[in-house]
């Protein structure tokens, strides 16, 4: 069964406090419909419904300190308790010790070895590759694991040809921030439909969204609300385009946006929102407690014949 993994950076399940938590304020009707009226808040989990399940998952994995992106993403990709093995959380970009885990052990490498079709659906702009080539930019854990598996990172040509999706979902940023006046732009609902259509080409597809973590560090309430309302429209288009033969997973590496009173990451648990076939969801979420339980659940779901 196929899995579409939507990675939202810096999203924790926080308190129902409209002063500090954009999830207590954002209008997210598509998400509410999936969760029988609930929002992405601590008080909403655990939940098992007709269309979706919501669990609270521990990103600290028993290691003191606040969880960070390099180790958090590496756990999501490998299922290995890397902070416990190294003795620390690390980020945002992987150091050599964390990077070492992102070779054979990642889901991308393992799926490729099994002959499964796997992809990271983001389209990256030329300046991203310029930064990498000049040594000014380091790969984060997710693209590093893709490269290590021998898979391509999608480029602007792929985005223009409809083979990849913009990091902001709609493509607006390619016109306003990246100077591509001709870049294809969709509304958020269409972007969700596109995400669903792209994911159907693969057994395992991942989409990475980092603006949420950025808004958390910048403590931008209005921006955070607007990002999540856009994401909700994406979710609407996506679930419309989805079918029974696949699960959608939305999860994160650590909290951040859930408490805008601090610019740091939070100690909150992160959501594992799973959408799709009820019995497949029950299997997927069984005994799911911390971040190390996600990768094995993805592996089992994708490897199971359906
Ligand atoms: Zn961060």
Provide key terms for this protein:
single chain, 306 residues, alpha/beta, 14 helices, binds zinc ion
Describe the structure.
- The chain has 306 residues and is of the alpha/beta class.
- Helix 10 (188-199) crosses helix 12 (221-241).
- Strands 2-3-7-6-1-5-4 form a 7-stranded mixed β-sheet, sandwiched between helices.
- It is built from 14 helices and 7 strands.
- The model has no long low-confidence stretch (mean pLDDT 97).
- The protein is globular, with a radius of gyration of 18 Å.
- It has helices spanning 29-34, 69-78, 82-86, 96-99, 107-113, 126-133, 141-148, 156-160, 172-176, 188-199, 211-218, 221-241, 278-285, 294-303, and strands at residues 2-8, 47-48, 52-57, 118-120, 204-209, 246-251, 270-276.
- Bound molecules: zinc ion.
- The site of zinc ion has 7 residues, from helix 11.
Shape: globular
Head-to-tail CA distance between termini: 6 Å
Low-confidence stretches: none
Mean pLDDT: 97
Q: Helical region count?
A: 14
Which molecules are bound besides the chains?
Answer: zinc ion
